[in-house]
Write a structure and sequence with these properties.
alpha+beta; 2 domains; five-stranded antiparallel sheet; 29% strand; rod-shaped
C-alpha cells in the first residue's frame, strides 16, 4: 500500500511540472499569435499615415470621405464638399483611397 502511495505522489509531482510547462507554452503561443499580427498592422498603419500628403483621398474612422487639402503637423484639413473643410487629427485617418475609388 505504501508503494502505491509513493508512486501516486511521484506521478502527481511530475505531472504538475508538465502542466505548468504546458500552460507557459500555451500562454506564450497565444501572445505570439495575438501580438505579432497587431504590431504588423500598427506598423502598416503608421507607414500609411506618414506617407499621406495634400491631394490624397482618405476615409476617417467615423466614415467621412474627403481629400486632404492641407497638412498642419499632427492634423489634416479635409475637404469633404465643395465649400466644406474640416480639421481632423492624423490618428483618425483609417485608410487611404485610390484615386479611382469613388464614394458610394
Amino acid at each position: 500500500m505504501d508503494h502505491l502511495h509513493f508512486m501516486a505522489q511521484a506521478q502527481s509531482t511530475g505531472s504538475g511540472w508538465q502542466v505548468l510547462i504546458m500552460y507557459v507554452l500555451l500562454i506564450t503561443g497565444m501572445c505570439f499569435l495575438l501580438v505579432v499580427p497587431q504590431r504588423k498592422r500598427q506598423k502598416e498603419q503608421q507607414k500609411m499615415l506618414d506617407g499621406l500628403k495634400s491631394g490624397d483621398r482618405v476615409v476617417t474612422t467615423s466614415g467621412i470621405i474627403g481629400t486632404i487639402a492641407n497638412v498642419k503637423g499632427p492634423r489634416f484639413i479635409l475637404k469633404i464638399a465643395d465649400d466644406t473643410k474640416i480639421e481632423i487629427f492624423r490618428s483618425y485617418i483609417q485608410a487611404k483611397l485610390d484615386k479611382s475609388e469613388k464614394a458610394e
